[in-house]
Amino acid sequence: MLRSGCSMCSMALHRKTVAGCSRGTESGCQTKVVRATRLPPSRKHPTLGAYSRQIPTYRESKMHRKLIIGSLLAATTLLGACALIQRPGPVGNVNVPAPAKAVDLAQYMGLWFEQFRYEAPFQKDMDGVTANYVMNPDGTVRVVNRGRRGSKWKESVGKAKLVEGSGNAKLKVSFFGPFYGNYWVLDHGDDYSWSIVGEPSGRYLWVLTRDRHPSDQMKTELAERVKRLGYDWNLVRITRQ
Fold it and tell me: 10 Å Cβ neighbour count for 163?
């Protein structure tokens, strides 16, 4: 409380905020003088007028709370995404070649059956794996991957976008949020009966065919093509269809 009897306190009011004057004279005044901030007229303190510490308005407090909540939600989303990103397998090709030829997207669309692959954490122990590609109206590709682990089927739906200047042989694929992975069609049959898919790190490999059960001759030829591309055949897992 301010006491009007102290002239020192009265003088201080012209430039500072005074709190706790215990006596009414200069000699006995125990007042603690603290610096204050001048407020605009619309926010004057009812007692001290323009001399008062700034107090956040309701609108400012509400905006501050929204910023904090938004930051927490963003951090939670990022942590959740990091948890979903599993550690990749070993490098099976230290020098992945660029795609051999352009891809006709219209012919590439449709259902493919996986014949062998490099085992990835998200596909571990899966068989009966298929990939289905459908063009979206906006030029992206809808990707539906399906596989069986034991007796349980799992399906993942994602989106792929083309990499400009790649002849449609390079795409970026995402199955959650803003996180995209590389999808390179390294080689494919002229009749689009088979496709070898990889990416630049050399940790992932998929070999796809149009037939669920291709001939042994085709599977042997595909295995030789994979080896010529520089992939370590010892890391390949055969997919049971």
Answer: 15
Tell me the whole-structure pTM to 2 decimals: 0.66
Q: Smallest Cα–Cα separation from 118: which of 84, 97, 83, 93?
A: 93
Taking CA atoms, 36 is separated from 13, 15, 30, 49, 65, in Å, by 10, 8, 19, 12, 26
CB-based contact 89:118 (threshold 8 Å) = yes
Query: Which tokens hold the place of 209?
Result: 């065919």
Tens-of-pLDDT digits for all 241 residues of the chain? 444 444 444 444 444 434 444 444 444 444 444 454 454 554 544 554 544 455 566 666 666 666 666 555 544 444 444 444 557 789 999 999 999 999 999 999 999 999 999 999 999 999 999 999 999 999 999 999 999 999 999 999 999 999 999 999 999 999 988 899 999 999 999 999 999 999 999 999 999 999 999 999 999 999 999 999 999 999 999 999 9
Cα–Cα distance, 94 to 91 (Å, whole number):
7
CA atoms of 150 and 119, how far apart (whole Å) = 16
| b/e map 50-83, b = 16+ CB within 10 Å | ebbeeeeeeeeeeeeeeeeeeeeeeeeeeeeeee
What is the C-alpha to C-alpha distance for residues 126 and 129, in angstroms, rounded to an integer? 7
- Quote the strand ranges of the chain, DSSP E: 17-19, 32-34, 37-38, 51-52, 110-118, 127-135, 141-149, 152-162, 170-176, 179-188, 194-198, 205-209, 236-238
Rg (the chain; Cα; Å): 34
